Amino acid sequence: MSLSAGQAAPDFTLFDTQKQTLTLSELKGRNVVILFFPLAFTSVCTKELCEMRDSISWYNNVNASVLGISVDSLFSLGKFREEQQLNFPLLSDFNKEVSTAYGSLYETFGFGMKGVSKRSAFVIDKEGIIRYAEVLENAGEVPDFGAIRSVLEGLA
Q1: What CA–CA distances, in Å, run from 40 to 74, 103, 153?
Q2: Does residue 45 have an active-site annotation?
Q3: For the residues 98-118, what does the mean pLDDT come to?
Q4: CB of 35 closer than 8 Å to CB of 120
Q5: Annotated catalytic residue within 24, 39, 45, 90
Q6: pLDDT-based confidence at 114, cuts 50/70/90?
Q7: Does residue 120 have a pLDDT over 70?
Q8: CA dihedral of 36, 103, 98, 92, whole degrees rounded to 10
Q9: Torsion on CA atoms 134, 137, 139, 143, rounded to nearest 10
């Protein structure tokens, strides 16, 4: 089941790469961009997350927190975050609960892997309402960053 604009964003608590928990509802009062991505260290995921890294000041200026989520372990994500010098939290959805709640889970991915996060983008407003939802079936594509920025500009 995919989520769409206008729905309340499902709350969650996940571990970040610093072994600390992050709860979505604790970010109330800020806009949030959630990027689900299939696998750390892959070319398209690296491109996508480095795009966010390089644009983080723009997101900060519109009072938006950026979160990356995948089913990778927090240890793998920690190494990936360090190597790519990512300046926003990466969260481990190792148990696939959040990816499932957001309709962002491939049943079968490449190489026979099951239960990998779909490349997806969600913009959640300061009140916890989804204002933008994009779930990509093709993991080789990246979210529409222009549309994400446009939605955030309208919320600022």
Answers
A1: 11, 20, 29
A2: yes
A3: 89
A4: yes
A5: 45
A6: confident
A7: yes
A8: -30
A9: -20
Which domains are assigned to the chain?
30-155 (3.40.30.10)
Per-residue pLDDT tens for 47-81? Answer: 999 999 999 999 999 999 999 999 999 999 999 99
Buried b (16+ CB within 10 A) or exposed e, 48-86: bbeebbeeeeebeebebbbbbbbbbebebbbebbeebeb
Residue 59 contacts residue 66 (beta carbons within 8 Å): yes
Q: What is the DSSP letter of 118?
A: P
Lookup result for tokens 């994500």 = 77
Length of the chain: 156
DSSP state of 106: E
How far is it, in rounded angstroms, from Cα 73 to Cα 93?
8
Write out the H or E segment, with its range, that includes residue 22.
Answer: strand 21-23
Does residue 1 surpass a pLDDT of 70? Answer: no
d(C-alpha 116, C-alpha 45), whole Å: 13
Given the structure tokens 């913009």, which residue do they identify?
Answer: 123
Contact status, residue 128 vs residue 144, Cβ threshold 8 Å = no
102 Cβ neighbours under 8 A, 6+ residues apart: 2, 3, 10, 34, 36, 120, 122, 135
